[in-house]
Amino acid sequence: MKKLIALILALVMVVCCFAACGAKNGTDADVTSDAAGNESENAEKLIMATNAAFPPYEYLADDGSFAGIDVEIAGKIAEKLGMELEIVDTEFGSIIGGVQSGKYSMGMAGMTVNEERLQSVNFSDPYAKGIQAVIVKADSEYASYEDFYTGYDDEGNPAGVKDGIKIGVQADTTGDIYSSDKPEKWGFGEDNVIRYKTGNDAVQALVAGKVTAVIIDNEPAKSYVAANDGLKILDGAYTDEDYAICVAKENTDLLDKINKALAELTEDGTVAEIVEKYIPADK
């Protein structure tokens, strides 16, 4: 009996040994995909947090894959760094917190630099320029966002906001930050701004007549207007800004590497080529 038990234990040990070897050889190893979709084992990941509802910078293609300017630039950065790009789709307002905590390596979502965000994270060099546009109904009585104000003071700053003006924005975006500021700083005041989870939600509120206008980045604004009859973009930019990548304050090594990669990709024309692919110069 003792010999039989010993034999069984020996067989169990052999099976376990083969299973462990199989895992080491890739049978059960962690597998990630790079920007081109190629699988590789045990590679260091570059985890990019984004909000994939911001075309043409980031969105979900018909096949469910991530696409857009930010997605392709991030893929090229990952290649430069010899890392595997992993993209996580999350709410825009949770990106900075996730980068701070180390949950994500970086945030890239048509994100602009401002003083409030700089208190929490660092930003890379800019890689693209964005414009905040104002969407209204095609039959709107307003020709410019300046018409939303009651008048102007001696210095040319708005004196107040007209009754009934309601501005729809995607929560935590620069459109939200700027428009919810005081009128004298060219905002519309907290009480006149309605925040939505996504830009599309804000646009649908405009279609339904729940808001007077939507303030959002220009390129997504074009996409929303094209997809919804009866809307238009007012002439003139509400603001213009530079897009950059956010990284945790303590992760200066990664920030330096990202900036170096961005510089190389800008110099060799890759960034311009990607932007032109999604936003043709003659568009």
**In whole angstroms, how far apart are the ends?**
84 Å
Number of helices: 9
- What general outline do the C-alpha atoms trace? globular
Strand-residue proportion: 25-35%
The value of Rg in angstroms is 25 Å
* Proportion in helices: 25-40%
Q: In terms of quaternary structure, what is this?
A: single chain
> What are the secondary-structure elements, in order, as H or E?
HEEEEEEHEHEHEEEEEHEHEHEEEHH
Which stretches of 5+ consecutive residues score pLDDT under 50?
1-41
Number of strand segments: 18
Largest β sheet strand count, sense and barrel closure:
6 strands, mixed
Find the structural class using helix and strand composition.
Answer: alpha/beta
- What is the residue-mean pLDDT, rounded to a whole number? 86
What keyword list fits this structure?
alpha/beta; 6-stranded mixed sheet; 3-stranded parallel sheet; 9 helices; 34% helix
